[in-house]
Amino acid sequence: IAPTYREYLRQQWDRVLQERSRLSAEYEIITASGEIKWVFEQGQGVFDENDQLVALEGLIIDITERKRQEMLLKYINDHDPLSGLYNRRYFHEMMKQHSQKEPNTKRAVLLINLRKFNLLIMTFGYYYSETLITELSARLSSLCKGNPFQLFHITMDRFILYLTGYRNRGELVDWCQKVVQMLEGEFSSSSFGGNIGVLEFTSGSEEADSIIKKASIAADNVDDSVTFGYQFFDTSMEEYL
């Protein structure tokens, strides 16, 4: 049994033996050759006339191929096919989980979108535009590596950096400046510029759609005179909701 599942399986057996019920569990095993496989186990305890446990009986089935298909489908469902990053659906699901498990926790998103992306496609074509998005995905991933951000690719030309546990707005400003510096250094000559909309919120106070909308409104309010810039969402922008 793979180490990750040993305690889980022990707890499941303890439970079914106490309840005199049947075990039904899926877990990973390590074969003698070192290969990882998934198995499905059904079982029950065998008790003597004195109600003492004398044996465990059941069956174990190799379900490795089925689990691979399940994990592949889940990956496809949760990731953008171009960038390989978590997608909008996964962002919605994660926001829902956080609002239930960690309400009133301070959080923020930085929504990054490239300006006039449709014009970019019309001018240079899909291949150029997709290559640009792939490069931007890689650069943002590198920026997030080892930092408390989680990165999402929510539409073709929009990304979200999701941050928890930050100290204050000044820290968000520092991160915006880092992103702007990266964009100016890598993408100023290959795009029409970009905007960053910043939204601060508590995890239980906002739905995912509302978060994206407010951050997008903030991004739309970035000064067009700068190639790359950022703007925080504030009460003056609520009229656009």
What form results from the Cα inertia axes? elongated
As a percent range, the share of helical residues equals 40-55%
Rounded Rg: 25 Å
**What are the low-pLDDT stretches, counting only 5+ consecutive residues below 50?**
none
Major sheet: arrangement of strands: 5-6-4-7-8
Task: List the total number of helices.
Answer: 7
Order of helices and strands: HEEEHHEHHEEHEHE
Describe the biggest sheet?
A: 5 strands, mixed
Task: Kindly report how far apart the N and C termini lie.
Answer: 53 Å
Average pLDDT confidence is 93
Share in β-strands: 25-35%
Number of strands: 8
Return the structural class.
alpha+beta
List the helices and strands and how they pair.
Layout: H1 3-19, E1 23-30, E2 36-47, E3 53-62, H2 64-78, H3 88-101, E4 106-114, H4 117-124, H5 126-144, E5 149-155, E6 158-164, H6 169-186, E7 194-202, H7 208-220, E8 228-232
